[in-house]
Amino acid sequence: MITAHPGLPEFDYIKPTTLEEASTFLAQHVGEARAFIGGTDVFVRMRDGAWKDKYLVDVKSLPGMNDLTFDPVKGLRVGAAVNMNRLIASPEVNEHYPVLAEAAHTVASYQLRTRATVAGNICNASPAGDTVGSGLVLNAKVHVHGVDGNRVEALRAFFKGPGKTVLKPGDIVTAVEYPLPPQGSAGKYLKLGRNAIGDLAIVGVTAFGYPDGAATPSGYRFFVALASVAPTPFMPDMALLSEKPITEASINEAAELAMNAVAPIDDVRGSARYRKLMVRNLTRKALMDVWEKLVG
Fold it and tell me: DSSP per residue over 263-284, as a string?
């Protein structure tokens, strides 16, 4: 049973000077060491007794972790230690990836966003992660350093279950890379929570679309990512919006498809039935918003 505690348990603070040193230490202390950057989730779970790590390995100052760069060909690279307020304030993010900035702005409070990171949101692997949906629809890549060196993982194949990812012992996420979105694209993130600000999502919907001459007959391609309605962030198939002309009826059909594709659970934040219905309603609303942006 998890109970609240008045303070953090004792742990050793480890501050490696290289990624190699950090990966080696984590691999040698599986089950008792954890990498951390912002600590917004780590410290809460340790305080509540859910995590009992003996060592916290601070990786936020390692090379590249604080880099936020944009290349007009390669796209956006967000170092794992870049906090969400810095991301939200970036002119390049707002110009080219507004749906990512919109999602980050819904996370917790301003104070917590000075510590919280997109990489942490991803590595936490919560089905309710706010910024994960934008990464899925934008086809983001996760850069990982492990004991065998560097590799890149597709975000769409990154999650294996609640709190579970493809990361192996010794792995450290160093950056998240977002390719340049197609010209003329538009996105929208809608979040339903119990409170207007700072709550976990009961349902989160990210919609994204762009003109594509190969998508006949509509001439557009759409993606939707859903949060808090499956064991992992989920992308229902939106192919019908390419195969049919875009109308209110086809958008309603796509929203019904999204609703029928999920099997959420009942919990303290909402019933399964309520979540399914809100998937339909929010998907419809998000797709309509994106469609209106696309047609100007």
Answer: ----BTTB-HHHHHHHHHHHHH
Per-residue tokens: 191: 């979040």
**CATH class held by domain 68-178:** alpha beta
pLDDT, tens digit, 9 for 90 and up, residues 119-135: 999 999 999 999 999 99
CATH top class, domain 186-295: alpha beta
Per domain, the residue ranges of the chain are: 12-58, 68-178, 186-295
Comparing 3-12, 102-111, 242-251, 263-272, the range with the smallest average pLDDT is: 3-12
pLDDT digits (tens, 9 = 90+) for 67-106: 999 999 999 999 999 999 999 999 999 999 999 999 999 9
Q: Which of 248, 185, 238, 235 is nearest to 212 (CA)?
A: 185
CATH 3.30.43.10 matches 12-58: yes
